[in-house]
Amino acid sequence: MLSHETIWAAIDALAERHKLTPSGLARRAGLDPTSFNKSKRHGPDGRLRWPSTESIAKVLEATGATIDEFMSYLPPGSQPPIPAGVFPPQTGSIPLLGFAQAGAGGFFDDGGFPAGQGWDVVDFPASPSRKTGVYALEVQGDSMVPLYRDGDVLIVEPGAQVRRGDRVVVKTRDGEVMAKIILRQTARTIELTSLNPEHPNRTFDMTDVEWVARIIWASQ
Known about the structure:
- By secondary structure, this protein is an alpha+beta fold.
- It folds into 2 domains: 4-72, 434 Repressor (Amino-terminal Domain), CATH 1.10.260.40; 91-219, Ribbon (Umud Fragment, subunit A).
- It has 6 helices and 9 strands, in the order H-H-H-H-E-H-E-H-E-E-E-E-E-E-E.
- It has helices at residues 4-17, 22-28, 53-63, 67-72, 99-102, 126-129, and strands spanning 91-98, 120-125, 135-138, 153-158, 167-172, 177-185, 189-194, 202-205, 209-219.
- Strands 2-1-3-4-9-5-6-7-8 form a 9-stranded mixed β-sheet.
- The model is unreliable at 81-90 (pLDDT under 50).
- Residues 25-48 are annotated as: Disordered.
- Keywords: DNA-binding, Transcription, Transcription regulation.
- This is Helix-turn-helix transcriptional regulator.
């Protein structure tokens, strides 16, 4: 059965799979680095502290792991049985484009949705692929390490509401396409934090931004 110990063991195993410490895994997911420390797994009064579903969701998104993969890290005998009539998630096809191509004209409409010719297709789990208008961008180069590496695929949702701390893909009217984290956004400007510490943060007037699309999934 699922327990406090088995859930934390799965998080530790996921961190080890990606060559991270628990604090490194939390940091990659955009959480407080101490969130997964062993000292935080019990309260001062000895009560059990469980990781939130939001924290687990952010960890899965940051590592590209699926819920099935996460469940596979649970110790033998602790995984819940699959109820009758429940089947593994189906896959769906969504448009795929490289970051270098994304900067060229003709691939997007004014709202940042896929348009024109030249798109490839990639299969993805139904949970992200059934969202209307989502598409995939393949990372090229090392400008997004350590979070995303060359060859990783990012699923983005154009038109989705974005807020501070969200990972997004931004295209400027000059044709520059980048993956960043929103630091601050007003009606006039948007401030972006770089994923790679070796690259500078950026600030744009909103009039210079063609579109902003939220990253909702990453395959690594």
